[in-house]
Amino acid sequence: MRNKVSSYCPLTTCMNSMSDTTALYIDAGIQASKYSNVGIFAVLIFDYCITLEAESQWVWHRKWTLVRFMFTISRYLPFFGIGMTFTAALRTQYYPGESCIRFGQASNVLHIICILAAEGLLIMRIYASWPCKRLLTFLTVFPIVCLVGSYVLSHSTVVNNSLNTTTNLPDLGQCLFVSGRQSVFEYAALLLCELVFLCLMLFIKFRRYKDRAIGPLQEIFFNDSVRYMICIILTSSFSVILTMALPITWVSITDDPQVVIHSVLASRLLFNLRESEERSQTHPTLVEVSDIQFEMSASRFGAR
Fold this sequence. Notes:
By secondary structure, the chain is an all-alpha fold. It has 9 helices and 2 strands. The chain has helices spanning about 10-20, 30-60, 65-90, 100-130, 135-155, 155-165, 185-210, 215-245, 255-280; strands at about 20-25, 95.
C-alpha cells in the first residue's frame, strides 16, 4: 500500500517525504475493533489446525465436485479476506498520497464471497433433502435478491443520512480502521435468508418426512443444518444490534466474526456428516449426502 519513491527523487526530498507520515486517529473503539479482528483471525487459524486431520481424512481423497469446490472456498478464502483485515488493523501510519479505498473494497468482496460459499453449501443441503427444481430456483434467486437489496440500501444517500454514518474523524486516504453503519443491511439480509432457510428445513423435516422413517444419518443431516442456521441467526442478530447501538468507532468489531463462523461451521458440518456416514455404514440408504448430487431423487434420500 505504500507508494514507491521515484528513483529520480533527490535524497533530501525523499527523506522529507518519508518523514511526512501522519499517525492515524485512534480511540478506545478503534483499538477494541483492532484487537477483536486480530483475535478472530487467531481463532480461524486455531480451528484450522485442530481440524486439519479431519479435512485430510474426509475431503482430500474425494473427487472434485461442486460441494468440494464450495467447501474449499469457504475453508481457505477467509485466510485472505481476514488477513487483509488483519493488515488494516496493524496500520498506524498514513503516507502522503496513499489511498486505502481499493484495498478495503477488495477485502469486502472477499468477505462476501466467503459467506456466499458457506451459504451455497447450506443451499445444496436443503436441495438434497427436497430435490425440486422450483425450490432450487428459489434458493438461488432469493439470496441474490437479498444481497442486491442490501447493497442498494447501503449505498442510498437518504438511508446513509438517516443512519448518521459520518464519523467527523480525520480519515486520511480512508485508511482509518472504521466501518459505517451501512453494513447493518448486509447483516439484516443474511438474517432474513437464514430465517427463511430454517423454516424450509423444518418444513421438510416435519412435513415432508413425517410419515417416513428417518435413520441416524438423516437425523444428523437435519440437526446439524438446523444448528448451523441458528448459530448464523444469532450471530447476525448480534451484529445488527452492535452495528446500530455502539458508537461509530466500535462498529468494525463486527467485521470478521461472520466470516469465521460461516467458515468454521460449514467445515465442521461436512466433516461430521462424512464421519457419521462412515461410522453408520448406511451408504445404500443415503448415497453420498455429503457430496450432494443434483440428480439425486427423493427415494435415495431416506427410507420410505
